[in-house]
Amino acid sequence: MNLSSSAKAAAAPALLAATLFLVSLNLRPALSGMAPLLEAIRSATGLSAAGAGVLTTLPVLCFGLIAPVGAMLAQRFSIRRTVLAGLLLLALSLGLRVVGGLPALFAGTFAAGAAIGVVMVLLPGIIKRDFAQNVGLMTGLYTMALSLGAALGAGLAVPLAQLGADDNWRLSLALWAAPAVIAAAAWAACAPADGGAGGQNRGAGMRALFGDALAWQVAGFMGLQSLLAYCVFGWLPTMLIDRGMTPLAAGAALSVSIAAQLPATLAGPWIAGRGRDQRMAVLALMVVMMAGLAGCLYAPPGQVWWWVVLLGIGQGSSFTIATLLVVLRSPDTRTVAALSGMTQLVGYLLAACGPFITGLLYDWSGGWNAPAVFFALAALAALAAGLGAGRKRFVHARE
């Protein structure tokens, strides 16, 4: 009896880690799985390019807006119940967006973004609470699961659509509700009980950081590199289709680019730690990212596969370094929590503008030159913020 109890206790962390990985896999397909289907959705519904930009922006907007709500819900109902409710809402919203016309599509997309935002803001706290001795490893697995989920969503979107007949894009979108249900069931069975988020002091710290220039640079770098990433999630397939690729190949190219982020998320901290501070790493990886994006826009079509890999390496490493800067620029654990909340709120609200602006510019210009100028300006702004955030110093949060 005691042996059985000991075996269960030993297996519990591994089981929880696997469950967290499964939950994290579900936090990106709702976004990346729509991008390869945008042209089919627009043809079937009459949605404009600007409207498609709004559709791809809604989930990212929710990530920022819902961040404070997720913490409040966890304090009231516990982390375990809040994450479970978020997963169930995600499954329901993924079904909702295909049961009707455009109103259902937009409502379901909004609800999916809200659900993901609630879950996403709580998972790092679970990692810190339940894996205190392996925070780095679990954070890496969490980041890899996000990238893997995004890659699967992009790569399987068109093949899943081809399983159906009329309105086959609806089938592709709806099928992602199934893994969300599986993740919810696994979470209900494996997640430990808890007494809440324990973040009662987080709000005051976050407010204090809004007066600190370095905190704004960290948040700005996170937001601007995320803006470029979500422009890629939302519009890279359309960009490549316009250059002559088939929808299937364009979706596969996005999937390859996202898959290239998997090793990059682990290599980013190593690259950042090679210098006295992180400024050279920020410069190098932003150059890599923009070279990859420029290649996708203007290099010969036969070379696109090399450029999407380069793009993925740059974006994956930039995201990891942006996350690392939150920790390195914070003098204590309370400031880490406050700065993390600020970067998610500011960063994702800023990132949400990217796909929408790209859609407006694409509609207005009828091509990709105007969006390319926007990408270049955003990259220069991200580089400026990153060079400031990369300096070896701490933010100062004064209440």
TrEMBL record:
Pfam families named among the record's database cross-references: MFS_1 (PF07690)
Keywords: Membrane, Transmembrane, Transmembrane helix
Residue intervals of the Major facilitator superfamily (MFS) profile domain: 12-393
InterPro entries assigned: MFS (IPR011701), MFS_Cyanate_Porter (IPR052524), MFS_dom (IPR020846), MFS_trans_sf (IPR036259)
Transmembrane segments: 50-70, 82-99, 105-127, 139-161, 173-193, 214-236, 248-268, 280-300, 306-328, 335-362, 368-389
Protein name: MFS transporter
Lineage: Bacteria, Pseudomonadati, Pseudomonadota, Betaproteobacteria, Burkholderiales
